[in-house]
C-alpha cells in the first residue's frame, strides 16, 4: 500500500476536502432550478473566496508538475516565461468581470453558453461552442488526472492506477455533493494549501542546497544555458516567448472555467478586492514551483522524466510525514482545476445542449447532471491510464483550442455592438481549424506558436463578417 507516513496526511487532506464540500453543500440556496443551484449557486463569492478560487482553477497540474518539469529542462528562461501568467486574475476580473457580473444578475445566466445565447441567439453557435468545450475539457482533465496520479505514484510508492482511482473518486464525491458552491469553497482551501506548501518547499530547497548562490553555481556547471533567458541551445526564442505570452496570459480571457467565476461574485467591491488579492496569490503559486523546478536540477540532475522533479524534491528534502503534507499543494492544484472543468462540462451537456432543446423535470435534471459528471470523470480516468511523457504539451494544446473558440465571441460580443453570430461562428471555426492543423502538423508560421496566427486571422474574419455580413435584428 506504499509508504504509510506519506499516505496518512494525504488521506487526512482528502477527508478535510470532503468535509468542507459537505458543509458548503448545506449552505446552497433553495431558490431556482436544480441546474441553477448546482452549476452556479447564486452570487455568493466575496473578494477573498473569488481570488483564491479563480487562481486555483487556473493553476493546475501543468503549473505544479508540467511547468516545473519544463523549468527543470530549460532553466530560468522558463521561469521568466511562466511569470507572464501572474496578471491572469487582474485581466479576467478587470476586463470581463463587470460585464459578466451584471449580465448574470440581470438575466440569470448560469453558464458561459448562457452568455453567448443572450448575445447571439444562435443555436448553431451554441452547439459548436458546447462540443468544442467538452472536447477540450476532456483533454485537460486527462492532464490533471495524470499529474495527480504521478505525484502519488512517485512519492507514496502506490501503483499509478491506484493513485488515479483515488483522485477520480475524491473529486467526484465533493463535486457531486455540492456543485459549484462546494467546488468554490474547496478551491479556496486548496489555494491556501498551495501557498503554504510551495513556501515550505522553496525554503527547504534553499536550505538543503546551501543557498541560491550555491544552487545556481551547480546549474552553471551542469549547463550554462540553464541560467540564460533563452535556455540551452536558445530553445526559448523571442517568437516562442511572445507566443507563450499570448497563450497563457491574453488568451485566458477565452477560458470558460475561469471566466465563469466572475458571474458568482457578490458585488463590485468584492470583484475589485479579488483583482488585487488574486494577483498576489498568482505571484506566489506560479513563481515558487517553477523556480523550485530549475533549482531542483542542481540537487537531482538525472531524473528519468522532468515531470518528476517536484514530487522527488519533496521526498528527498523532507521526512515522510512532512513530505505527505507538502504533497497536498500540487494535489490541490490538480483537484481545483478538475472539479471546475467537470462542473463546466456537465453544465454544458445538461443545461446548454439538452435542456435548451428538451425541458427536463427537476428530478430528471438532478439525475442527468450527476450521471454526466460521473461519466465524464470515468472517461477521463480511463484515458489517463496511458499518459503522455510530458503533460505540459497536451495541456497547452487543449488550452489553445478553448481560446480560439471562446476568446473573440466573448470579448467582442461583450464590447462590440456590431458583433454578429455569423462573425462569431466564422471566427470559431476558422480559429479552431487553423490551430489544430498547425499544432498537429508541427507548423509554426513565422516561427510563432499556432495560437498567435490562429487568433489574429480568426479575429480578422470575425470583424469582416460582422461588419459586412447581415446584422442582427
Please render the helix and strand layout as text.
Blueprint: H1 4-25, H2 34-39, H3 47-58, H4 61-74, H5 76-82, H6 88-107, H7 112-120, H8 123-156, H9 160-209, H10 212-222, H11 238-248, H12 256-259, H13 268-299, H14 309-317, H15 320-354, H16 362-383, H17 391-415, H18 421-441, H19 451-468
Explained architecture:
This protein has 473 residues and is mainly alpha-helical. The chain has a single domain (4-392), classed as Up-down Bundle (Sodium/glucose cotransporter), CATH 1.20.1730.10. Helices cover 77% and strands 0% of the residues. The chain is built from 19 helices and no strands. The protein has helices at 4-25, 34-39, 47-58, 61-74, 76-82, 88-107, 112-120, 123-156, 160-209, 212-222, 238-248, 256-259, 268-299, 309-317, 320-354, 362-383, 391-415, 421-441, 451-468. It is globular. The mean pLDDT is 82.
Number of domains: 1
Let me know the largest β-sheet: none
In the CATH hierarchy, what is the architecture at level 2? Up-down Bundle
Beta percentage is under 5%
Shape estimate: globular
CA-based gyration radius: 22 Å
Head-to-tail CA distance between termini: 64 Å
**Any low-confidence stretches, pLDDT <50, length ≥5?**
none
Question: CATH homologous superfamily - what is it?
Answer: Sodium/glucose cotransporter
Order of helices and strands: HHHHHHHHHHHHHHHHHHH
- The level 1 CATH classification is Mainly Alpha
Amino acid at each position: 500500500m506504499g509508504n504509510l507516513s506519506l499516505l496518512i496526511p494525504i488521506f487526512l487532506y482528502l477527508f478535510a476536502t470532503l468535509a468542507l464540500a459537505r458543509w458548503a453543500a448545506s449552505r446552497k440556496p433553495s431558490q431556482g432550478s436544480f441546474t441553477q443551484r448546482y452549476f452556479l449557486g447564486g452570487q455568493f463569492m466575496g473578494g477573498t473566496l473569488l481570488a483564491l478560487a479563480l487562481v486555483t482553477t487556473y493553476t493546475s497540474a501543468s503549473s505544479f508538475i508540467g511547468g516545473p518539469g519544463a523549468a527543470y529542462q530549460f532553466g530560468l528562461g522558463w521561469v521568466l516565461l511562466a511569470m507572464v501568467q501572474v496578471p491572469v486574475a487582474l485581466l479576467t476580473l478587470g476586463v470581463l468581470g463587470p460585464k459578466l457580473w451584471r449580465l448574470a444578475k440581470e438575466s440569470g445566466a448560469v453558464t458561459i453558453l448562457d452568455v453567448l445565447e443572450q448575445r447571439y441567439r444562435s443555436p448553431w453557435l451554441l452547439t459548436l461552442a458546447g462540443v468544442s468545450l467538452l472536447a477540450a475539457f476532456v483533454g485537460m482533465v486527462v492532464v490533471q488526472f495524470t499529474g495527480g496520479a504521478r505525484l502519488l505514484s512517485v512519492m507514496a510508492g502506490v501503483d499509478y492506477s491506484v493513485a488515479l482511482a483515488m483522485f477520480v473518486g475524491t473529486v467526484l464525491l465533493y463535486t457531486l455533493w455540492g456543485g459549484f458552491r462546494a467546488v468554490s469553497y474547496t478551491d479556496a482551501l486548496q489555494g491556501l494549501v498551495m501557498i503554504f506548501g510551495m513556501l515550505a518547499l522553496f525554503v527547504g530547497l534553499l536550505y538543503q542546497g546551501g543557498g541560491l548562490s550555491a544552487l545556481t553555481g551547480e546549474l552553471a556547471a551542469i549547463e550554462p544555458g540553464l541560467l540564460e533567458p533563452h535556455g540551452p541551445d536558445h530553445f526559448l526564442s523571442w517568437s516562442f516567448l511572445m507566443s507563450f505570452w499570448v497563450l497563457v496570459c491574453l488568451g485566458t480571457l477565452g477560458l470558460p472555467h475561469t471566466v465563469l467565476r466572475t458571474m458568482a461574485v457578490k458585488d463590485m467591491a468584492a470583484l475589485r478586492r479579488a483583482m488585487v488579492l488574486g494577483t498576489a496569490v498568482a505571484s506566489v503559486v506560479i513563481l515558487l514551483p517553477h523556480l523550485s523546478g530549475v533549482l531542483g536540477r542542481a540537487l537531482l540532475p538525472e531524473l528519468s522524466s522532468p515531470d518528476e522533479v517536484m514530487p522527488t524534491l519533496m521526498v528527498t528534502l523532507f521526512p515522510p510525514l512532512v513530505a505527505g503534507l507538502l504533497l497536498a499543494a500540487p494535489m490541490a492544484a490538480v483537484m481545483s482545476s478538475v472539479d471546475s472543468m467537470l462542473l463546466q462540462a456537465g453544465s454544458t451537456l445538461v443545461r446548454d445542449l439538452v435542456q435548451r432543446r428538451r425541458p427536463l423535470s427537476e428530478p430528471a435534471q438532478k439525475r442527468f447532471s450527476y450521471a454526466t459528471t460521473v461519466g465524464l470523470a470515468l472517461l477521463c480516468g480511463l484515458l489517463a491510464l496511458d499518459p503522455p511523457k510530458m503533460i505540459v504539451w497536451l495541456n497547452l494544446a487543449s488550452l489553445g483550442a478553448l481560446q480560439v473558440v471562446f476568446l473573440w465571441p466573448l470579448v467582442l460580443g461583450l464590447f462590440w455592438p456590431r458583433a454578429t453570430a455569423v462573425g462569431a461562428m466564422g471566427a470559431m471555426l476558422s480559429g479552431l481549424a487553423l490551430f489544430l492543423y498547425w499544432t498537429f502538423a508541427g507548423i509554426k508560421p513565422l516561427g510563432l506558436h499556432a495560437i498567435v496566427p490562429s487568433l489574429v486571422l480568426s479575429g480578422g474574419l470575425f470583424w469582416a463578417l460582422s461588419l459586412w455580413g447581415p446584422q442582427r435584428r
